[in-house]
Amino acid sequence: MTGKTAPHLWLRHEARTTERRTPVVPDDARRLVEAGARLTVEESPQRIFPVEAYEAVGARVAPAGSWNSAPPDTVVLGLKELPDEPAQLIHRHIFFGHAYKRQPGAAELLGRFAAGGGALLDLEYLVDGQGRRLAAFGFWAGYLGAALAVLQHRGRLTGPLRPTDRGELDDTLRPAPGDEEFTALVVGALGRSGSGARAAFGTAGVDPACWDLAETRDLDRRALLDHEVLVNCVLATTPVPPFVREEDLDDPARRLRTLSDVTCDVGSPLNVLPVYDRTTEWTDPVRRLRKEPPLDLIAIDNLPSLLPRESSTDFSAALLPQLLEFPAGGAWARCLDRYHRACRELGVPGLDEGKPGRD
After folding, report:
1. CA-to-CA distance for 242 and 91, rounded, in angstroms?
2. Nearest residue to 231 (alpha-carbon basis) of 254, 203, 201, 251
3. Of the given ranges (113-117, 237-241, 272-276, 312-316), which has the lowest mean pLDDT?
4. Residues with Cβ < 8 Å from 19, sequence gap 6 or more?
5. Residues recognised as catalytic
6. Which of 17, 38, 177, 286 is least surrounded, with the fewest CB atoms within 10 Å of its CB?
7. 141, 152, 115, 117: which is closest to 194 by C-alpha?
């Protein structure tokens, strides 16, 4: 990453007001600059790290939202959804697009890239040669998904939620006198999110049942519904029978009372929990799906932002080696190929496969 091949990376402000994470922390920004990258960081009042910390390691500072006017060869780096404008996206963007499984708005987003000649390099599909993700927030998503489920089940979860640190969160998680025991289940227990969920349950003094591929391949739905708390950490990539169905919610024998969906694949045809049609929010983190027997849903799609410092630091450390190789390396080529394939699958017009790579 030196000379003419060094990319111009542009760390954008996140439009979502509850998004406090960053894909690159100041320590790793310094490593990028030292390696020869040009780095611009937008001002952002909510980012967990102040912009001055980036400026101190050699980054240029720009106003929030000014990536729109960056030179065309700039690579825009973020995490969550883009603003609705501009209609034509001319840059390469690295972020979580949530657009490759026919989610709501997928065709519109990909169409904006095709119209402008840019490209989506989706972080969810930044993988090695065996398909394993190279940078993910999964552990912290699972940790917080289970933590909120425990607090809700024990009657100690209140909104609005606010960012915190792990020490403060763990203090609220630890069992208190009078807390009743309950049964819990983590589905997808062997993955990153599942390991985080298991860790949070451990802090809470709960020993959850742990299911993974073997248990979900031949699903015992009755056994699943017999647990009082369920944390789903499964992100399906091929169609599978749903874990919980609409008719299960009205089953009078259902013992399940708290459902925490870490995956939040709402709107996707691959959703394993098709019993709700919108996520919950920091302001109102719990939705009552049924009054009798009661069933509460937690489905927040940026859980790690509740622990922004810890989750950003871990993610940035994993992403840094890939950014240091950009645009070379098989991982980025696989990202670009996946973008082109998604555009073809959705019939996005105007795609020029020879243009977005800009290698």
Report:
1. 38
2. 201
3. 237-241
4. 46, 79, 80, 302, 305
5. 80, 98
6. 177
7. 141
Q: What is the 3-state secondary structure (H, E, C) of the chain?
A: CCHHHCCEEEECCCCCCCCCCCCCCHHHHHHHHHCCCEEEEECCCCCCCCHHHHHCCCCEEECCCHHHHCCCCCEEECCCCCCCCCCCCCCEEEECCCCCCCCCCHHHHHHHHHHHCCEEEEHHHCECCCCCECCCCHHHHHHHHHHHHHHHHCCCCCCCCCCCCHHHHHHHHCCCCCCCCCCEEEECCCCHHHHHHHHHHHHCCCCCEEECHHHHHCCCHHHHHCCCEEEECCCCCCCCCCCCCHHHHCCCCCCCCEEEECCCCCCCCCCCCCCCCCCCCCCCCCEEEEECCEEEEECCCCHHHHCHHHHHHHHHHHHHHHHHHCCCCHHHHHHHHHHHHHHHHCCCCCCCCCCCCCC
Q: What is the pTM of this model?
A: 0.92
Burial of 17 (0-12, 13-18, 19+ CB in 10 A): exposed
**Which tens digits make up the pLDDT trace of 84-143?**
999 999 999 999 999 998 888 999 999 999 999 999 999 999 999 999 999 999 999 999
Segment 199-253, tens digit of pLDDT: 999 999 999 999 999 999 999 999 999 999 999 999 888 888 999 999 999 999 9
**What pLDDT is recorded for position 1?**
60
Is the Cα torsion angle 112, 312, 172, 139 positive or negative in sign?
A: positive
Q: Please, which residues bridge with residue 291 across strands?
A: 294
Q: Which amino acid is at 158?
A: T
Q: 């995956």: which residue's tokens?
A: 263
Cβ neighbors of 11 (< 8 A, separation 6 or more) are: 22, 23, 24, 29, 39, 40, 41, 42, 54, 59, 77, 78
